[in-house]
Design brief:
Blueprint (H helix, E strand, L loop, with lengths): L15 E5 L2 E3 L2 E10 L2 E2 L7 E2 L2 E15 L2 E11 L7 E6 L8 E5 L4 E9 L1
Antiparallel strand pairs: 1-3, 2-3, 3-6, 4-5, 6-7, 7-10, 8-9
């Protein structure tokens, strides 16, 4: 039996922080954010620690009001993992045994998406 008193749950960090702010200027909106994930363990025995990581993200919005028959047109550019940090996002582990198969899945690399939304 594995003792679990005062032990961290597998793949659950003690600290998970998401912080950011919003800057509005005329029709523009800028939203930078940072996500920090503290160190975690990949096994119930706490023998394999996975390093902490942080990612920098940003969203840029441009809003036009009363365009043709639309109330609002909003264009958004989302940038994720701007610094292209390499990290382990998910740990798939048997949390009830000291030995077992553990799988590690990488986090998303830098990526961007562009969206448009319409309000009538």
């Amino acid at each position: 039996m594995i003792g679990c008193t005062d032990k961290q749950i597998v793949d659950v960090p003690k600290w998970l922080i998401k912080s950011g702010f919003i800057v509005n200027y005329d029709k523009w909106q800028f939203i930078p954010s940072v996500i920090y994930v503290g160190s975690r363990y990949a096994d119930a025995g706490h023998t394999q620690e996975v390093a902490s990581y942080a990612t920098l993200n940003a969203q840029i919005n441009y809003t036009l009001k009363n365009i043709y028959k639309m109330h609002e047109l909003k264009l958004s550019l989302q940038l994720n993992n701007i610094l292209n940090k390499k990290y382990i996002a998910v740990i798939n582990s048997m949390d009830d045994a000291l030995a077992g198969n553990t799988s590690f899945y990488p986090g998303e690399p830098f990526n961007a998406s562009l969206t448009a939304s319409l309000t009538f």
